């Protein structure tokens, strides 16, 4: 199904010729997905250095992991625009959210064949391009730490938690060592790992945020720099058990071996030892 077909259902007056699409990408200073999760997207989008929204409607999409994958951030109606000369020339738009489309904000993922770097294409340009690829059961959000038994982070979410250094997550994961599980949701393969360093699970997972493989040989082969595009987004991170931050490495290693045996991650997963 095409996004623009849905937009016409949600807003009967909407047509591709009356819309601009905002392809929100990293601007060198802020990542749009972070801004969205922090609840600042509307204000962030309203500030424009040029008159980018000269149409009646704005379709807002956020780049999600790959250049051709986008998260639906809202359908807006342009109500007005004010030019400001200070502190530097810019335009502030008054953009009103279309209520009928709000149910799908932060839930609807789209795939596209559009390869241009232009971030403000006309609606007509993408009318037949944006195809619905995934619908989340609830809106994408990164909240406070949910408890060790409830941790279930995608790679994208882990990156956000680490990049933003969310206080509740950092405090919880820095104060425990333990055994964690990485799941490859595409193949079903598992990797059991241990965090036995002074910085706890937090320190170990910061390495995964930076590299996706944490130095592990099998994970590096599958998710390293030579990996297929988009493979990293299939990684999910959870916690099998925790230990006191002062626990000895040998103790953590014994529990790691236990979980490898239970989950058969040596035989059928990414554990090689």
Question: Which descriptors apply to this entry?
Answer:
single chain; 273 residues; alpha+beta; GIY-YIG endonuclease; 2 domains; seven-stranded mixed sheet; 10 helices; 11 strands; elongated
Could you explain how this protein is built, in words?
This protein has 273 residues and is α+β, with helices and mostly antiparallel strands. A hairpin with a 5-residue loop joins strand 9 and strand 10 (190-195). The chain is elongated, with a radius of gyration of 22 Å. Helix 5 crosses helix 7 and helix 6 crosses helix 7 (200-211). The termini are far apart. It contains ten helices and eleven strands. Strands 1, 2, 3, 4, 5, 6 and 7 form a seven-stranded mixed β-sheet that branches. The protein has a four-stranded antiparallel β-sheet with strand order 8-11-9-10. The chain has two domains: 3-135, no CATH class; 148-268, 3-Layer(aba) Sandwich (GIY-YIG endonuclease), CATH 3.40.1440. The protein has helices spanning 3-10, 32-37, 41-46, 123-126, 155-164, 167-174, 200-211, 217-223, 249-263, 265-268, and strands at residues 19-24, 47-48, 57-64, 66-84, 90-97, 108-111, 131-135, 153-154, 176-184, 190-195, 235-244.
Which class of secondary structure composition applies to the elements?
alpha+beta
Distance between the termini: 45 Å
Shape: elongated
Q: Please provide the ordered H/E string of secondary-structure elements.
A: HEHHEEEEEHEEHHEEHHEHH
Quote the average pLDDT.
Answer: 93
Which spans have pLDDT < 50 for at least 5 consecutive residues? none
Number of domains: 2
Give the proportion of residues in helices.
25-40%
Largest sheet: 7 strands, mixed
Please give the radius of gyration in angstroms: 22 Å
Total count of helical runs of at least 4 residues = 10
| Number of DSSP strand runs | 11
How much of the residues is beta strand, in percent?
25-35%
């Amino acid at each position: 199904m095409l996004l623009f077909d849905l937009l016409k259902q949600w807003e009967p007056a909407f047509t591709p010729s009356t819309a601009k699409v905002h392809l929100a990408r990293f601007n060198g200073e802020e990542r749009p997905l972070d801004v969205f999760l922090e609840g600042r997207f509307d204000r962030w989008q309203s500030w424009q250095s040029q008159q980018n929204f000269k149409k009646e409607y704005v379709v807002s999409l956020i780049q999600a992991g790959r250049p051709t994958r986008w998260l639906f951030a809202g359908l807006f109606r342009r109500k007005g625009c004010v030019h400001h000369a200070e502190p530097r020339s810019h335009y502030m738009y008054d953009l009103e959210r279309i209520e009928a489309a709000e149910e799908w904000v932060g839930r609807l993922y789209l795939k596209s064949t559009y390869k241009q770097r232009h971030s403000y294409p006309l609606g007509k340009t993408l009318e037949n391009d944006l195809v619905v690829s995934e619908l989340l059961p609830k809106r994408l959000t990164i909240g406070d730490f949910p408890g060790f038994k409830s941790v279930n982070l995608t790679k994208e979410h882990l990156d956000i938690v680490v990049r933003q250094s969310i206080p509740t997550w950092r405090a919880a994961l820095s104060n425990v060592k333990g055994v964690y599980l990485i799941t490859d949701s595409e193949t079903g393969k598992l990797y059991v790992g241990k965090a036995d360093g002074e910085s706890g699970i937090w320190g170990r997972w910061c390495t995964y945020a930076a590299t996706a493989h944490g130095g592990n040989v099998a994970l590096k082969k599958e998710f390293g720099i030579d990996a297929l595009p988009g493979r990293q987004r299939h990684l999910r991170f959870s916690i099998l058990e925790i230990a006191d931050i002062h626990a000895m490495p040998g103790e953590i290693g014994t529990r790691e071996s236990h979980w490898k045996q239970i989950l058969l991650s040596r035989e059928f997963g990414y554990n090689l030892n």
